[in-house]
Amino acid sequence: MIRFLHTADWQIGKPFGGFEPEARFRLRDERFNVVARIAALAAERSCDAVVVAGDAFDDNTVSDREINRTLEAMKGFGGPWVMLPGNHDAALSVSVWTRLSRLAERLGVTNLVVADRPETIFLCDGRLAILPAPLTRRHEGADLTGWFDEEATPPGAIRLGLAHGAVANRLPEAAESGNPIADDRAARARLDYLALGDWHGFVEIAEKTVYAGTPEPDRYPANEPGHVALVEIDGPGEAPRVERVRTARYDWRALAVRLDGDTGALTETLEAIERPGETLVKLTLSGALSLRDRVALDALIETWTARLFDLAVDDTGLFDEPDVEDLDAIDVSGFVRVAIERLREKAADPADPEREAAALALRMAYVEHRRLAGEGN
Question: Pairing relation of β-strands 121-123 and 128-133?
Fold first, then answer.
């Protein structure tokens, strides 16, 4: 039996430019921490090897310090690490891989195999044959796994394909713009397992063909990121046993909540989050609220912004719907009351081009009146 750990898309050096400096630092740092967790898992489960199916690095310009930190994180597993160049870290003549090899040699690291050529790599005394398809540029029009079909390996060797790209006819169209991989490659090449990278979620996309996904999420998908694949194969031709193992620390959630009349649904949704300090939320709100409930919503958002690791709110689908109680609370008369009523009418009319401006003016008037009334008390 051969047992190996399949991972991909570490994206070491990803900038996370859309975040504040502290959050950006913590997210970047966690890329190294998850590699250390992968190494510990591989050691704990007595793996024969770890295979990395591309994009270990976010680009070829990562610093030597980031490369050294990656090597340090990998120390927890003493077996072979087989690392494939992907589209972000393609095997150029001078690349992150040439620097990685040089730095590894200086540090005396002997268990690193850079699979930068389409040549079979034999491990485990020849019982494991790894067929890699390294990328030498970001976008490749040809299927670089084609050579697997004709490659001969010893009868007793388990055949493991290693590639980075989009499996044809299986992924969303947006993911299939380059680096194609035939959806029947495992069968045509008599592979016992095809370890893939590029798609950031964990999925068995075809027979014996698995995307491990990124081990630490880096966006708001719904495709099961944050795992590695622990694979056992008894021998050539035997079905692989694939275990999905969670490795992520941070939880990225895209939530859509409709509010109709109060903020209860949002409170219930947010309270269900088990580890708010390690959760990033992209929140989309829709519906309609009274002015007093809108003020309550602002207070609720402020509270959860402090509790969550990060909270991004899109409330373009949420409208103010002032009622009589709201207007009475503003407590004005005469022409000001007429103006307020007029704003309410405009805010309630979906066809009015000034709807949003009118709603904002009403909300500001409501909040300011409450503030002044509070000071008066």
Answer: antiparallel
Give the three-state DSSP class for 330.
Answer: helix
Crossing angle of the two packed helices 64-73 and 21-44, in degrees rounded to 10:
40
Q: Are 161 and 193 in contact (CB under 8 A)?
A: yes
Which CATH architecture best describes the domain 250-320?
A: 2-Layer Sandwich (3.30)
Three-state DSSP at 36 gives helix
Across 94-103, 163-172, 345-354, the highest mean pLDDT is recorded for: 94-103
Q: Based on the number of CB atoms within 10 Å of its own CB, is 364 exposed (0-12), middle (13-18) or buried (19 or more)?
A: exposed
Measured CA to CA in angstroms, residue 242 lies from 197, 203, 213 at distances of: 16, 11, 14
Q: Which CATH superfamily is domain 2-246 in?
A: Metallo-dependent phosphatases (3.60.21.10)
Which residue reads 């309410």 in tokens?
Answer: 344
Query: What predicted TM-score, i.e. pTM, was given to this entire model?
Result: 0.87
- b/e map 77-95, b = 16+ CB within 10 Å: bebbbbbbbbbbbbbbeeb
Q: What is the 3-state secondary structure (H, E, C) of 73-96?
A: HHHHCCCCEEECCCCCCCCCCCCH
Can you give the residue ranges of every domain in the chain?
2-246, 250-320, 322-377
The per-residue pLDDT for 141 is 87
Where on the phi/psi map is residue 232: left (φ > 0), alpha (ψ -120 to 50), or beta? beta
Task: Return d(Cα 235, Cα 156) in angstroms, integer.
Answer: 7
251-260 and 241-246 beta bridge pairing: unpaired
- 326 confidence band (pLDDT: 50, 70, 90): low
